[in-house]
Design goal:
- The complex is a heterodimer of chains A (about 280) and B (about 200).
- By secondary structure, chain A is of the alpha/beta class.
- Chain A has one domain: Rossmann fold.
- Chain A has seven helices and seven strands, in the order αβαβαβαβααβαββ.
- Chain A has helices at about 1-40, 60-70, 90-115, 145-160, 185-210, 215-220, 245-250; strands at about 50-55, 80-90, 125-130, 180-185, 230, 255, 275.
- The longest helix of chain A has about 35 residues, at about 1-40.
- Chain B has a single domain (about 10-175, about 185-200), classed as Rossmann fold (3-Layer(aba) Sandwich), CATH 3.40.50.2000.
- By secondary structure, chain B is an alpha/beta fold.
- Chain B has a six-stranded parallel beta sheet with strand order 3-2-1-4-5-6, with helices on both faces.
- Classes of the chains: A alpha/beta (about 280), B alpha/beta (about 200).
- The interface of A and B includes residues 236 and 239 of A.
């Protein structure tokens, strides 16, 4: 009788301890998220250095809006020297639009800016296909597994070792990670942004605990300043955030909205607010 | 003897590639709407009816063979979709005097890609939200763009009034895209936001 009371008490203590550890870990993660939301990027990058831009494309409207924004901002291929486009499996439209943008718009633009040297963009971009998180009509029982599969694929892309990216040495970048990630909210964007945060957390933990791989020690610039994420809410969203937007509100480094009603939203107190920037499409 | 009647005035209707919108196709092919089109000086009607719209269009042609009274003197044609995009078809609605075309009209579903394409051309645009879509935020986009003077937010059951309003819009359309942001506004451009995040040295 006495001993059984003892076991119950110790079990309770163990549970309480485990609970406390879990809660403090969650609080620590929240605190880290809050801090990273409040902090600015340090000025560390020399001008005219190579920049790797990663663009997440989605179905019809998202992709059309993305290229419309890139055209309007006059994306400069001599500044954003390497570009990776993520498309979902089966989305031929987006892959085609990406090739079209690279081979007609960017080459034309570079040629007109610098008439003596028409620039070819081949070799300075890649199009990577990741599996869909959930196909239309797919059962909800298998959806978690396909989402994990999609997430894993996005992690490979961000680490530069996805098979569609070709060998690392063929790319002119110091780091396998993209410098900046731009998305306007297809479902894949959720996986990509969360994968970027996970990698940054990994780098931050490495820095704290001092586990550094050889490549990290040789790198000139710290990898935790890369993988910055910019989420642009779709132009089609006037008064309500999209599901991807709601999910990514606490995670994206910058959250831009194109209509005034969506300005100033935040995940919770102390977090960074959405920024109203007006119409970005053309 | 080039008269006004010989100039082409085209109305292009598009339902997009993703979802079907047969309610719109049905209203377009109604006798009352075709009569109004003719009354507003249109000569051509081109319909992108999507994957599920073909039976409706074929049924119309069976009922009213080309050249019959039911076409009201309009040249009517249709296709399911164009994998290369619709910029060619949309341009047919733009005024082009050397090719004998006066400014026509685009009637579109409320997808953002189609709306941007049409606005860039500067052709009067009637946007018809699809009420059968779930989570319908399309109506909001159509309404706010109408408020700003870029287009006409129509309803599939009331297209004839949109024809009148399109003629008004033709005279005083707002310029697209919205004026580029200058230094005076506090709104940063996309490139500025990206540069912030990249952390360039001063």
């Amino acid at each position: 009788m006495n001993s059984s009371v003892l076991t119950w008490t110790s079990l309770l203590w163990a549970l309480a301890l485990a609970g406390a550890v879990c809660i403090s870990a969650a609080l620590l993660l929240l605190y880290a998220l809050l801090q990273s939301h409040k902090s600015q990027v340090p000025k560390w990058r020399p001008k005219n250095g190579p920049i790797h831009l990663l663009v997440v494309l989605g179905s019809g409207g998202h992709t059309a809006e993305m290229f419309s924004m890139l055209r309007r901002m006059k994306l400069d291929p001599t500044k954003y020297t390497y570009r990776t486009y993520i498309v979902s499996s089966g989305d031929k439209f987006s892959a085609k639009k990406a090739v079209e943008f690279e081979t007609t718009y960017l080459t034309q633009d570079a040629a007109s800016a610098n008439a003596k040297k028409p620039v070819s963009t081949s070799g300075s971009y890649s199009i990577v296909t990741v599996p869909r998180a959930r196909r239309v009509h797919q059962s909800y029982f298998t959806a978690p597994f396909s989402t994990l599969n999609s997430f894993w694929s996005c992690l490979l892309v961000l680490r530069g070792i996805h098979p569609d990216q070709g060998p690392v040495h063929s790319r002119p970048m110091q780091s396998p990670h993209p410098d900046i990630i731009l998305t306007n909210g297809p479902a894949t964007a959720v996986c990509v942004v969360l994968a970027a945060r996970l990698l940054r957390l990994w780098h931050a933990l490495n820095a704290v605990f001092g586990f550094k791989s050889k490549s990290d020690r040789n790198a000139i610039s710290p990898d935790d300043f890369r993988l910055r994420t910019i989420f642009v809410e779709s132009w089609a969203r006037v008064t309500t955030l999209s599901l991807s937007g709601k999910l990514l509100l606490p995670f994206a480094d910058r959250f831009l909205v194109q209509w005034p009603d969506l300005a100033g939203r935040k995940a919770w107190t102390g977090m960074r607010e959405t920024e109203y920037v007006g119409t970005l499409v053309d | 003897m080039a008269t006004q009647d010989q100039l082409m005035k085209l109305c292009f209707v598009t339902v997009g590639a993703t979802a079907s919108f047969n309610l719109l196709i049905q209203s377009i092919l109604e006798q009352s709407f075709l009569r109004e089109l003719r009354a507003h000086g249109y000569t051509h009607l081109l319909i992108q009816y999507g994957q599920d719209g073909k039976p409706l269009f074929d049924e119309f042609l069976r009922q009213y063979p080309p050249g019959s009274e039911g076409h009201h003197g309009l040249l009517i044609d249709g296709f399911d979709f164009n994998p290369d995009g619709l910029s060619y078809e949309m341009r047919l609605a733009k005024a082009w005097s050397s090719e004998g075309r006066v400014g026509g009209l685009i009637i579109s579903h409320a997808g953002s890609g189609s709306i941007m394409d049409a606005l860039r051309l500067g052709v009067p645009l009637v946007v018809v939200p699809n009420p059968t879509l779930k989570d319908n935020h399309q109506q909001e986009l159509a309404d706010i763009l109408q408020e700003q003077g870029y287009l006409i937010a129509g309803q599939y059951w009331d297209l004839t009034t949109s024809l009148d309003r399109a003629e008004h819009l033709r005279v005083k359309m707002a310029h697209w895209p919205p004026i580029s942001k200058d230094q005076q506004t506090s709104q940063p451009s996309l490139d500025q936001v990206m540069c912030d995040e990249l952390g360039f040295l001063d």
